[in-house]
Amino acid sequence: GTEGGRMLLWDGNLIEFEISRPGGQPCHAGNIEVLRLEAGVVMSAGHDGVVRTWDVSLIEAAEVNEDEPIFEIDPLSEQVVGDGEASTMIINMVPAL
Asked: pTM here?
């Protein structure tokens, strides 16, 4: 993830594309603190106090324009664990989901 709240899909040492929510909104407001891949979903936890899940199959099947390599996707779910809470609390919450 990025400090700007977007996720990046890497192909080796190169960024293949950037992932954001529809309308160009970042995946999180601020830093993405944790990314976890489990059972066909990516879980992301941000410093914004929100945990979101994303469908891996949709991300893997994404087709993006080389000139603007951004893929917009809605999260499968989101859970607010505390606005502005410390990132350590969020890190501890992700494995419990």
From this structure: 0.80
